[in-house]
Specification:
By secondary structure, the protein is mainly β. It is 1% helix and 48% strand.
């Protein structure tokens, strides 16, 4: 059997001429779906709430009750925007009246007392889903005035009746278990393991323990500190600083408006945006866009599109995903000789590399050219190319010059090469 949460409370009240507080035995508690508070006074068939989301708790053909008076039972005609309309006679509503949602069955009223038949709730007598149900979701208090029931996680209303079935009071927004996500308005500290399957919002600081798993969106408006392992299967947004532990796996977007510090391993399968500083650990994999408006420091490698408007501090820039160049990526000008040769060395690629050109044959002339067509396609904009010689052959005073476009580099050997001589070219392209 699956365990389900429960709740309990006591009903007490004044009794006798001394008005002593005593437990109310034999009183009734009807557990009904979550209703709402009216947001303004009205008399008519329209009831207004604070938002469309609140009004959306109700639906056409639902039975409702305004406050505790059974004279105010009505059937919902329609719901639209932040209000609903009722069928039948006008009803007087005061601001902050509780509008109870009874269900689809009209309650039975006798002498001002109501029997709320088949509310749209299911409550049980024990803490598993095979337990006996309370008929009509109604619990009778015991000799200690105790009301106890179990139900699926949700928010409910309770209508309290005395022994004569007269409505005496209510409990609004009674939460059983964790319902409609988690929302806290101050600093929140969570233990070793946290798994959240619904929306999660913290308006203060949030600190999570060793393992946190989020299967729905999480938002923190203050600072968020995550423990050793974070797995997020939905978007994470932090408007303050964010500190992540040794292993971070993001299967959706991650946005931090302050500074972000990542531990040893960060894997992000969506966009990653940091508007402050970003510090990344030994291994970083980003398969979506990475944007940092401050300074980004990487201890390991980054894979994917990287956009940084500030500085990037790292040990090395390694183009490990670049396409290796071959002789077919180069065109040798005629002034190198009719049997000139070319050798690509040192795992060259578009952004850096080294080649050796052998001047040979007839037709050798001044300022011979080389053209490199980029193997990985067009750059986003025209890059800058820097070239230098890697040999000491004659003519020793000759140099290389380069002009780049978005698709290729044109390199000239400024001087006249010597037949039978090899000349080395080293380049770097930044765009």
């Amino acid at each position: 059997m699956a365990a389900i949460p429960g709740t309990q409370f006591n009903i007490t009240g004044a009794s006798g001429t001394a008005a002593a507080l005593v437990a109310k035995s034999g009183w009734r508690c009807y557990v009904v779906p979550r209703g709402a508070f009216a947001s303004q006074d009205s008399t008519g068939t329209l009831i207004t709430f604070d938002s469309a989301g609140v009004a959306g708790r109700f639906a056409a053909l639902d039975w409702i009750q305004v406050g505790l008076s059974t004279d105010n039972l009505r059937r919902v005609n329609a719901v639209g925007g932040n209000s609903l309309s009722v069928a039948g006679s006008a009803v007087t509503v005061s601001e902050n009246n509780r509008i109870f949602l009874i269900g689809n069955t009209q309650p039975t009223v006798t002498g001002g007392s109501a029997t709320y038949t088949i509310p749209r709730t299911t409550i049980r007598q024990r803490g598993d889903d095979g337990a006996d149900l309370y008929t009509n979701s109604m619990v009778t208090s015991d000799s200690d005035g105790l009301i106890r029931f179990h139900s699926d996680p949700a928010v409910y209303d309770c209508i309290i009746q005395d022994g004569n079935q007269g409505n005496q009071g209510y409990i609004a927004d009674l939460a059983v278990g964790v319902a409609e996500g988690i929302s806290t308005s101050y600093a929140s500290v969570f233990g070793a393991t946290v798994t959240v399957n619904a929306a999660f919002g913290v308006t203060g600081w949030a600190t999570f323990g060793q393992t946190a798993t989020f299967n729905a969106a999480i938002g923190v408006t203050g600072t968020a500190v995550f423990g050793a392992t974070l797995t997020a299967n939905a978007a994470i947004g932090v408007t303050g600083w964010a500190t992540f532990g040794s292993t971070v796996t993001m299967n959706s977007t991650l946005g931090v408006t302050g500074h972000a510090t990542f531990g040893a391993t960060a894997t992000v399968h969506g966009a990653l945006g940091v508007t402050g500083w970003g510090t990344f650990g030994a291994s970083v994999t980003v398969t979506g866009a990475l944007g940092v408006t401050g300074t980004a420091t990487f201890a390991g490698g980054v894979i994917g599109g990287v956009t940084v408007t500030g500085n990037i501090n790292m040990q090395r820039l390694f183009a490990g995903n670049a396409t290796g160049l071959t002789n077919t990526d180069f065109a040798i000008g005629a002034s190198w000789g009719n049997v000139a040769t070319l050798i690509v060395t040192n795992a060259s690629h578009d952004s850096a590399g080294q080649i050796t050109v052998g001047c040979s044959g007839t037709g050798i002339g001044a300022n011979p050219s080389l053209i490199l067509t980029f193997a990985d396609g067009t750059w986003g904009k025209t890059p800058f190319a820097v070239t230098t010689r890697s040999d000491v052959n004659a003519p020793i005073d000759a140099t290389w010059t380069a002009a780049a476009t978005a698709t290729l580099i044109v390199v000239h050997f400024v001087g006249t090469p010597v037949n039978g001589t090899n000349y080395g070219l080293v380049w770097q392209v930044i765009g």
